[in-house]
Amino acid sequence: MATKRQSETAGHSDEQLLAALRRFIRSKGSEYLNDPNISSIGVGYKIVDGTATEQLAVQFTVDEKVEPEALKSLATDAIPDSIEVDGVAVPTDVIQRSYEPSFRVVAEPEPPLTKVRCDPIRPGISVSNVKGTAGTVGCIVYDKVDGTPLVLSNWHVLHGPDGMIGDTVVQPGPRDDNRIERNRLGVLNRSHLGIAGDCAVSTVEDRRFDDRVLGMDVVPAQLGEPELGDKVVKSGRTTGVTHGVVRRIDTIVKLRYGSAGVHNIGCFEIGPDPARPADHDEISGGGDSGSVWLFEADDETVTGVMAGLHFGGESENSPDEHALACLAQSVFEKLEITLRPPAPVEAVEAVRTGYDPNFLATRIDVPSVDTALRDDLVLIGGSEVVAYTHFSLALSKSRRFARWVAWNIDGSSLKKIDRVGIEFVKDPRIPAEFQTGNELYRDNRLDRGHIARRADLLWASLPEAHQANTDSFFYTNITPQMDDFNQSSKDGLWGQLEDAVFADVEVQDLRVTAFGGPVYHDDDRVYRRSRIPREYFKILAFVDGGDLKARAFLLTQALDQLEALELDEFRVFQVTVAELEERTGVRFGAELRKADTFTVPEGLEPRRALDTIADIQW
To answer: Among the listed ranges 22-31, 182-191, 302-311, which one has the minimum average pLDDT value?
Structure first.
């Protein structure tokens, strides 16, 4: 501080003198730096014989300290012995010191492995619902029935208050990397929030996986039951590998999950292991949710036995450090998962149960046709209904295409399966003379278009989904469509209808039943001995708010100039089920007619086509 003599001489306190010096430096300091030999000016304690005193000084540094007679050669002026500041003669101090930028080249900081995109993925790294932030991949598990590999984490990580089954899951979570499309991992497959635990699983579709826990290289292989005093260890996205001791069991905690409300969760409590303290004494932190706690052996080696699924810790105001974990056995039972894939199931090719009329809460039977059309249907084993995996159809003898196709869509278990290596083929169960094959589609602009959309059929177990994928390529499910069928000015609206119902409607259980097919007219144009349909229909049925709803659509093609390879754009109209029955001769049943609440405009002007999905009256 300033000496007593300095302060008292001018009637200034120490604080007042310091404030005055700071004002002086800010207002006048730069003027002194115009001197080429002065490198800095500031306030400091005067140095005498190399030792700092308690006397405040205006301190100058110079590049070179010389005798007065040499100042002229440096083009510099002598610094006065003191400078008056607010009436106080403040001594100066001159130190030889020069400055230059100082830096060293360093590598750009690498984000931790837990927070970046990983391929293969591993337990211990960041993951989240696309609408969430970031949690932790607990471990790789398998569907108990079909062996589908899944990622285990928490409900509040993979689902959350704003989520729904079928949501995109990303790795890493959006908080760590918001490039959503690049980071897609799979979809939310199933979840639970309640006394059995805070838990959920996601599919693994766009990534490989390594089931060894990051930082431990141990594969969870068994489930265990925690007891008081057991030592456990986990690997989390935020705090990494930490060690703890089970200190409460048979515990139920009450937690608030935002807009999802308050829930009671069965769990056990873990405290820090004093023998192996964590950094900053934090055994868990935000973002560790979803980690698995594994038991440690007496010699402190990590076992492959899972104790529980981490889901919570102390609040910000709590003085106690602890973690909470769901019981592993309860979680696995509720989600119907296992740590080891079940034995391979037999191929399902011979088991084609076809369209399920009881797929929704209300039974919807397969369509029928008008009496005049019945003799035109192909029969297999006395039945006009041909069954495939997840869809059925009726085939017209005269047109050699389907009259109608009926299919079920389970949005909660859809799989992502490619079509590589699958050929379009005729169904060997049906006489070839009643099927149209590649002879129609070769060397022209006609595409082989699926009636029951391939992506709609890829659900249930993996073997079943693969079989549905193959079945979708039978020519019985194919009709001729122009190569820009879904690239018209309506932006492919026809192919978006099924996706739109999931996006725009609270579809109960994510289940939809669909019907589709060509609309035949006597004046349909003949091309290569086939009459080409110029219209198509589609009906989507679903349960919304407990009520069965049905929505019908018609797409028209203008094929007058097929040989010239020119085509008017396709137009999609929303119509009624009754209108489609009149147009097609196919009868869809009283349930669908009753469930269709679309109101036909009463004006005389032409019916408007749909411009976008937003125009649909769901």
So the answer is: 22-31
Is the backbone peptide bond immediately before 341 cis, with ω within 30 degrees of 0? Answer: no
The two tokens of residue 2 are 């300033």
Classify the C-alpha dihedral 354-358-362-365 as positive or negative.
Answer: positive
Phi, psi of 81 (to 5 degrees): -70, -25
Look at strands 302-313 and 323-327 and give their pairing.
antiparallel
Interatomic CA distance for residues 160 and 92, integer angstroms = 66
564, 487, 494: which is closest to 525 by C-alpha? Answer: 564
Rg of the chain over all Cα atoms, to the nearest angstrom:
38
Burial 223-234 (b: 16+ CB within 10 A, else e): bbebeeebbbbb
Secondary structure (H, E, C), 19-70: HHHHHHHHHHHHHHCCCCCEEEEEEEEEEECCEEEEEEEEEEEECCCCCHHH
In order, the DSSP letters of 227-294 are -TT-EEEEEETTTEEEEEEEEEEEEEEEEE-GGG-EEEEEEEEEEE-TTSPPGGG-S--TT-TTPEEE
- 7 vs 12, 14, 44, 137, 605, CA distance in Å? 5, 6, 16, 66, 96
Separation of alpha carbons 453 and 437, rounded Å: 18
Amino acid at 459: W
How many CA atoms lie less than 13 Å away from 254 in the CB half-sphere? 2
Tell me the C-alpha distance between 489 and 319, whole Å.
Answer: 63
pLDDT tens readout for residues 41-64: 888 888 888 787 888 888 887 877
Instruction: Tell me the C-alpha distance between 310 and 156, whole Å.
Output: 11
Cis, bond preceding 226 (omega within 30 deg of 0)? no
Q: What's the CA gap between 463 and 216, in Å, rounded?
A: 34
b vs e for 370-391, b when ≥16 Cβ sit within 10 Å of the residue's Cβ?
eeebeebbbeeeeebbbbbbbb
Cβ neighbours of 263 (radius 10 Å) = 16
Taking CA atoms, 466 is separated from 354, 392, 415, 461, in Å, by: 15, 17, 9, 9
Strands 149-153 and 222-223: unpaired
Q: For 442-493, how does the pLDDT look when each residue is reduced to its tens digit (9 = 90+)?
A: 877 778 889 999 999 999 988 889 999 999 999 999 998 765 554 443 446 7
Distance CA 1, CA 234 (A): 53
- How far apart are the C-alpha atoms of 270 and 246, rounded to whole Å? 4
Grouping H, G, I as helix, E, B as strand and the rest as coil, residue 577 is helix
Which CA distances in Å does 252 have to 130, 249, 300?
29, 9, 29
